[in-house]
Structures are given as C-alpha cells and as structure tokens.
Amino acid sequence: PVELVETGGGSAQTGGSLRLTCTASGDTYRYCLGWFRQAAGKAREGVAGWNAGSGGIKYADSVKGRFTISHDKTRDTMYLQMNNLRPSDTAMYYCAATRCYNSPTLREDQYNFWGQGTQVTVSS
C-alpha cells in the first residue's frame, strides 16, 4: 500500500497561484499518482496525473496551461503548481495513487489509495 499526504492548500484570489504537495510513502516506481478535486455539491473529477515510472503526464482540459505537475527525483513527492486560479478551481484537492503501466489516467475508479485532501479556495 501507499500512504499519501497532501499539503499546501489555502486561499488565493482570482489570477493567483498556489502549490500543492503530495508526499507518498513507499516506492512509487510502478504507480501513477493523480490529483483530483471535489467542489461542494459536485462529483470528484480528475485534474492531472503522472506516471512515476515513465514520466508521462496528463491534464484535464479545464486546467491545461494553468496547472503543472512536477516531482522530486526520488518519485515520492509530487507537486501541483496552480497558476491563474479561478473561483471555479475552489474545491477539496486529493492526491491518489494506483499501480499502472501505461499513460496516467484521470478516472477516479482506477485509483486505490487516497490522501485526506487539502482545501483550495479562490475568491473573485
């Protein structure tokens, strides 16, 4: 199993930036790590995913050009740099992990391990 901890949430104004950190325990070489978010009253949606083995990255259309995944060399820490934030980005953000061998997926049902979430609030 993989344990995940998210940090870095908080408040920002429209157009501002925040960086989220996901710290994973265990070797994530054969894993995909993903960022998901859930706004109040809405279903959880995939934001971005990263294959820790191949380095492949995938973004949801809603965040392309604004959000960027990066990671450290040990593959146990993943970051989500969020720029040009919008009120519609307000949500609880979750880090998730799953064993994977192909391109990262943004399908929630494909992920087995989840962090506790960190809140992001963007005001207009």
Folded structure, characterized:
The protein has 124 residues and is an all-beta fold. Helices cover 0% and strands 49% of the residues. It is built from no helices and eleven strands. The strands form two sheets. Strands 2, 4, 5, 6, 9, 10 and 11 form a seven-stranded mixed sheet that branches. The protein has a four-stranded antiparallel sheet with strand order 1-3-8-7, with no helix packed on it. Strand 7 and strand 8 form a beta hairpin. The chain starts with a strand and ends with a strand. The model has no long low-confidence stretch (mean pLDDT 93).
Element layout with pairings:
Blueprint: E1 4-7, E2 10-13, E3 18-24, E4 31-38, E5 45-51, E6 57-59, E7 67-71, E8 77-82, E9 91-99, E10 113-114, E11 118-123
Largest sheet: 7 strands, mixed
Structural class: mainly beta
Number of strands: 11
SSE order: EEEEEEEEEEE
Query: From the alpha-carbon coordinates, what is the Rg to the nearest angstrom?
Result: 13 Å
Number of helices: 0
Helix share bin: under 10%
* Multimeric status of the protein: single chain
| Fraction in beta strands | over 45%
The CA-CA distance between the termini, in Å, is 40 Å
* Average of pLDDT: 93
- How would you describe the shape? globular
Low-confidence stretches: none
